[in-house]
UniProtKB/TrEMBL annotation:
One of its GO terms (molecular function) is structural constituent of chromatin. Keywords: DNA condensation, DNA-binding. It comes from the Bacteria. The keyword Mitochondrion does not apply. CDD domains: HU_IHF (cd00591). This is DNA-binding protein. It comes from Rhizobium sophoriradicis. Belongs to the bacterial histone-like protein family. Coiled coil: none annotated. The keyword DNA-binding applies. The lineage of its organism: Bacteria, Pseudomonadati, Pseudomonadota, Alphaproteobacteria, Hyphomicrobiales.
Amino acid sequence: MTTTNEIADKIAAGHCLTKAQSKMIVEAVFAAITTAATSGAEASIPAFGKFKVKATPERQARNPATGATIKVAAAKKLTFQPAKALKDAMNT
C-alpha cells in the first residue's frame, strides 16, 4: 500500500521540495478531484485515468441475516477508468 506521506516523500526527493511542500501538493490534487466529484464533473489526469461520478438507481436487496427484502436508495459513486498508458504499464 502506498500512503499520502509516501507519495509526498517521493515527490519531495525527486523535485527538491520539502516534505511539507510536497504533501500540500498531493493534498491539493486530491482536493481538486474531490471538488470535481462533488460537483458532478469528471477529473481527468492524462496518462493516468479519469475519475467519474456514476449514478446508481434504487434497487431491491435482501438482508442476509433475516432474508427480508429491503429497498436500497439511489446513490452516486465515484468510479475510476484507467488510461491506456496505465493499463499498458500494468500489463507489461
